[in-house]
Write a structure and sequence with these properties.
alpha/beta, 10 helices, globular, binds adenosine-5'-diphosphate, binds magnesium ion
Length: 256
């Protein structure tokens, strides 16, 4: 059974009088990578923010694991299991890679009470968890590297590792490969694929780069002027005439 982790129903969102989302409904299934694509200005980031709670919709509802979170603010959604890169305190640039991961692991334990001491038995488990994270995210050889000296793509990867340390039920990524070199983009796709396989993580991602999209997506939804015009498997989306017309047929523009 493919239970739904997240279910958004009939979302509308305007900035002032400008309607940006119109009647958008989508779901994220357990273990599913759902990628939202669309031209610049289509409303992807706005949809992302409504799903993560940074913005509230004017109309419609968001349910997470069966619970209505429509009016639950972003930081509380994190406690429920929403993972997003910019939610974690930024990478601490003077600390090593493994110390950053340690901080993220401690943050998970302190979710309910920020002042709580981490029980010794729990702290003992961190060493194993850190080794696992370092291996999963390709940082084993850089565990002692000072984070501030990492290349841009590696720093983004460390941010991702810190979010994974929080063991989210669903991972949200808004254009995770923006600003990356082709090699960094490729490494990020491979990492996300590996993480998804190993941790059977559910993901919602917006993305510009079609190689990334088709390399990762189980399902793709296409947003066009605030409306979802198609949702389906990568093969279905490639074959969809409407999508070809407004978007994929004009990939040069989409990359601009
Ligand atoms: N805070 C804001 N106030 C007013 N208009 C906004 C704001 N944020 C985004 N917009 C507008 O909403 C539309 C959708 O933006 P956005 O969600 O960022 O699209 P995308 O991520 O697909 O490029 C754009 O026309 C943008 O100019
Ligand atoms: Mg955007």
């Amino acid at each position: 059974m493919n239970a739904m982790v997240l279910e958004a129903t009939s979302l509308d969102k305007s900035y002032g009088r400008i309607g940006v989302l119109r009647d958008v409904s989508l779901t994220i299934g357990a273990g599913e990578s759902h990628v939202v694509i669309g031209p610049n200005g289509a409303g992807k980031t706005t949809l992302f923010k409504v799903l993560t709670g940074e913005l509230y919709a004017d109309r419609g509802a968001v349910h997470f694991q069966g619970r209505d979170v429509t009016r639950v603010p972003a930081h509380k959604r994190v406690h429920l299991g929403f993972g997003r890169t910019f939610q974690v305190a930024k990478v601490f640039s003077k600390l090593s890679v493994q110390d950053n991961l340690l901080i993220a692991l401690e943050a998970r334990v302190r979710r309910q009470n920020p002042l709580a001491r981490v029980p010794r038995a729990v702290a003992a488990g961190f060493a194993v968890a850190i080794d696992q994270l370092l291996a999963d995210t390709g940082f084993a050889a850089q565990r002692d590297a000072i984070s501030g000296t990492l290349a841009y793509g590696d720093r983004k990867r460390l941010e991702l590792a810190m979010v994974l340390a929080l063991e989210p039920a669903v991972l949200f990524l808004d254009e995770p490969t923006a600003g990356m070199s082709a090699a960094e983009r490729h490494a990020t796709v491979e990492l996300l694929k590996a993480v998804k396989r190993k941790r059977s993580l559910s993901m919602l991602m917006t993305e510009h780069d079609m190689d990334v999209v088709f390399g990762l997506a189980d399902r793709i939804s296409v947003l066009h002027y605030g409306q979802l015009i198609a949702s389906g498997t990568p093969a279905e989306i490639r074959a969809n005439d409407k999508v070809k017309e407004v978007y994929l047929g004009d990939e040069e523009d989409a990359h601009a």
